[in-house]
Amino acid sequence: MSDRSTVVYYYDGSYDGFLCCVFESFSEKEQPAAIYDMYAADQLSLFGAKMIETTPALALRVRDSIPNKMGLEAQDLLEKAFLTCLRDKELCMLRFMRLGYKVGRGICSRMTEPAVDTLLKAVKHLEREAHLYLGFVRFSECGGVLISEIEPKNNVLPVIAPHFLNRFSGEDFMIFDRTNKVALMYKDGEHVFVHADRIELPPESPEEKEYRAMWRTFYDTIGIEGRRNESCRRTHMPKRYWRQMTEVKHLI
Q1: 116 and 83 share a domain?
Q2: Are 122 and 158 contained in the same domain?
Q3: Does residue 130 contact residue 123 with C-beta atoms inside 8 Å?
Q4: One domain, residues 13 and 84
């Protein structure tokens, strides 16, 4: 495969679409200069552009080859890496896969390789943020449905979804990710991920305002004034999360 970069790939932003980019790269023996989501990219390039169509059969071939050639650990790493906010993540993932197809199942243990180290750090950042959101998500009741809005750096919603689907299995709820413009919707035991630029919520009901006031009162009451430490609070609960947290967003 040539290392010359003379073309830029554009795809539909899906994981299957990315796998089709991988197939194109290997079948054409070319290393793209960049791989962009056609719906999110605003970059200009001096290289030729190539639109990569998402073909399920080709994506499945590449998907199946990953655990066969590199192992399940590599498969899990790549799927999570795709959810990260890593700059040029698609190109980084392609470099990882080029190396993985050469060295095989030991790829994830080669932490001194830049292609491996970059993905491992990005996924660690994703998992750390997802862990924080398990405690920082706040729901409000709107028309009988529990609704929450989050603004993560990474696409954490697929990672945290199993926790909330299990925790609120008896409720109808929605979690909307403003950053990645996707919503997790759950109703009558079924869930779906829906892409949406924004959501319009009705005004707060009197009951919702009352519950929020009670929650803030509880939050303030359990605090110990003599041990109040704003610096420590910001360490454990960074301010960028406060905008969606009922008990502290009024402090911003």
Answers
A1: yes
A2: no
A3: no
A4: yes
CB 183 within 8 A of CB 147: no
Answer for the pair 67, 59: CB distance below 8 angstroms, yes or no: no
Residue 27 located in a structural domain: yes
Residue written as tokens 């892409």? 195
> Would you say the pTM of this structure is higher than 0.85?
yes
Q: Look at residues 152, 141, 154 and name the one whose alpha carbon lies nearest to residue 243.
A: 152
- What is the span of the domain harbouring residue 227? 137-251
Are the C-beta atoms of residues 14 and 54 closer than 8 Å to each other?
Answer: yes
Compute the distance between CA of residue 69 and CA of residue 89 in angstroms, rounded to an integer: 21
Question: Phi-psi category of 224—alpha, beta or left, where left has phi over 0 and alpha has psi -120 to 50?
Answer: beta
CB 17 within 8 A of CB 62: no
Residue 179 inside a domain? The answer is yes
Which of 78, 101, 127 terminates a domain? The answer is 127
pLDDT digits (tens, 9 = 90+) for 155-194: 999 999 999 999 999 999 999 999 999 999 999 999 999 9
Q: Where are the alpha helices (DSSP H) in the chain?
A: 15-27, 56-70, 72-81, 89-103, 114-136, 157-167, 206-222, 230-236
Joined tokens for residue 22: 């991988």
Interhelix angle 114-136/89-103, rounded to 10 degrees, is 120
Phi and psi (nearest 5°) for 213?
Answer: -65, -40
